[in-house]
Specification:
Length: 260
């Protein structure tokens, strides 16, 4: 605990002028005595008074009891993350840690060994411009539970993280097919599970973009006698500097209807 109870013996005239706040209790760890098991130790507690200390006799000597364990140090790459929603019509682009990118964690082995990753998070709420911030890194267990760093030493108390804020635009998908169905069959239609995609990027990349084209060689209907269903990775056909706002839409399903 962080408190100690003790007795002080002195002349009544001295004691009547003393209060709890006149006393300090200190445990000097350089005087620590380690037990044979090397897992526990004791440290003598020194009581002193700010006044009349030489006139006071203190009671029985007391000791601070400690538990000990091995010191461990590990280095971790710092992962970048963001929270909050940017201004409508904008999207979060590249989020990265710039300084430092690696952090050293030292402390009791029982705590350091539970660290799975270190994350720095930047708040992008209502932002429409690129931003940078110094944030406190968070240590997480394998199950993403935050670890108390009170007993740990980190090589950096803060890390610098930046977030890119990009324009967004909704563009349609265009399809082309190649080849011809079997004799007496013809294509009656083509559709996908999404008709438009929301993309993000710099204004210079988005302004000339009017649609996303799926090349005809991807949708080949040569000799077809029944409907064709194809999974298409749309990210392969995005222009340079353009990304999907929703990465779950990276794979789309295209259905080509074939009838007699």
């Amino acid at each position: 605990t962080n408190t100690v109870t003790f007795s002080a013996i002195a002349k009544r005239s001295y004691l009547e002028k003393l209060e709890d706040t006149n006393f300090t209790a200190a445990a000097d760890l350089s005087r620590m005595v380690v037990d044979k098991d090397e897992q526990t130790a004791v440290v003598p507690i020194e009581i002193r008074s700010s006044i009349y200390n030489s006139e006071i006799t203190y009671g029985e000597k007391q000791y601070l009891k400690l538990s000990l364990e091995n010191l461990m140090s590990r280095q971790f790459q710092i992962y970048a993350d963001s929270r909050g929603d940017v201004t409508e019509g904008w999207a979060v682009g590249n989020v990265k840690v710039t300084n430092p990118t690696v952090i050293k964690v030292s402390g009791p082995e029982s705590i350091v060994s539970t660290v799975s990753k270190v994350v720095a998070t930047i708040d992008v709420s209502d932002m429409s411009v690129d931003l940078s911030d110094n944030v406190v890194p968070v240590l997480l267990t394998e199950k993403n539970k935050e670890i108390d760093t009170t007993r740990l030493t980190l090589s950096s108390s803060y890390v610098t993280i930046t977030a890119q804020i990009l324009n967004t635009k909704e563009v349609p998908l265009n399809y082309k097919t190649s080849g011809s169905p079997a004799d007496d069959y013809y294509m009656t239609g083509i559709s996908a599970n999404v008709s438009k995609l929301k993309v993000k990027g710099a204004a210079s990349a988005l302004n000339p973009l009017t649609s996303i084209e799926i090349p005809e060689e991807i949708l080949n209907i040569s000799g077809a006698t029944e409907d064709i269903v194809t999974e298409v990775d749309i990210t392969e056909y995005l222009p340079e500097g353009v990304e999907l706002v929703d990465n779950t839409q990276s794979s789309i399903t295209v259905t080509i209807a074939i009838d007699q």
